[in-house]
């Protein structure tokens, strides 16, 4: 028994030293690690050409990307979530599920030394075409949204980083007026970084659903849902302001952003601004996709696809009100996602249908974007996530 405890103590010390060493390696590195989710198979909306999750290095000084590795094979790991421990990456597998009838959610182990990404396990997404995944604030659970089926699922993370059997499954209800809103289509699920609530955005139902985590029962509990106005707006993604109790919801079908308070008293129930991502004279279909806010809280960015293929830039005042500053071409086709690097100096746009990731420099005073000349070729890139 004494020998066992000595062995266990040594193992814990070794693990702790390894973790500290990994953290130091990341901090001292001249580059940021970027994970890129891709489509790997042909679907109605995309000709997937990727091989899995790509790992790239982004030079901290120039924003230039360099290939490092690619993950073990998995089907269309389109959207990603990187665990705060830096050792695990989770992905939705965005397809119809094949003969199984349900798609899957995957867990990977990341090794910083050789930048390998090894598949740990896959579990059912309990729906089809899952399109978003996130990790709760405690780092104990993974949440996924199924576009087809209009549902969200909640999974425990095991000690080895694997995904356990789902603890909760919630099916949304409702529809709206647009042809794409014949049924619920959950498009995002995310926990507020400091407040104790979870928002699930549903494009098909024109609603935002609120959930909370029951830490005792380890389940995802329904709290309420709020209509998005006007109908046919098609809420797709949202982002929270880093210091104000405000959420910005991007509507894919109308190309608008709704600004709403998220305090306990009036969660998503009062919209105090709706602003278009397009010029007033522009009547092209926006096909809005992603929305992100700068770490300093002063600038907000949104992507439009379709004929626009641009990143729209907004200023954010002290009350959270937006003003449109302009737009920057992504120099490619279909910017489904983009990301701001941890320093806030660069914005990287993923052009899904032209197979490129373009790095732009962010003016720290004005928020405007400028070309750096750095363009990386990546097959059908979808989601960009930096190692934290």
Using the 3D structure, state the CATH architecture of the domain at 71-227: 7 Propeller
Shape: globular
Beta-strand percentage range = over 45%
Task: Return the CATH class of the domain at 71-227.
Answer: Mainly Beta
Could you name the ranges where pLDDT drops below 50 across 5 or more consecutive residues? 1-18
Q: What is the number of E strands?
A: 30
| Rg measurement, Å | 20 Å
Strand order of the largest sheet: 5-4-1-30
- What distance lies between the first and last C-alpha atoms, to the nearest angstrom? 39 Å
Tally of helical runs = 1
- Structural class, judged by helices and strands? mainly beta
Assembly state: single chain
The main β sheet shows up as:
4 strands, antiparallel
Supply the CATH superfamily name of the domain at 71-227: YVTN repeat-like/Quinoprotein amine dehydrogenase
Helix content: under 10%
**Residue-averaged pLDDT, rounded?**
93
CATH fold type of the domain at 71-227 = Methylamine Dehydrogenase, Chain H
Walk me through the structure.
With 388 residues, the chain is mainly β. It has a domain at 71-227: Methylamine Dehydrogenase, Chain H (7 Propeller). The protein is built from one helix and 30 strands. It has one helix at 2-28; strands at residues 31-38, 42-43, 46-47, 54-59, 65-70, 77-82, 88-93, 104-111, 116-124, 128-135, 141-148, 151-156, 168-171, 186-191, 198-202, 207-214, 219-227, 235-240, 246-251, 256-261, 273-276, 288-293, 299-304, 310-316, 322-329, 335-340, 346-351, 356-362, 369-377, 381-386. The longest helix has 27 residues, at 2-28.
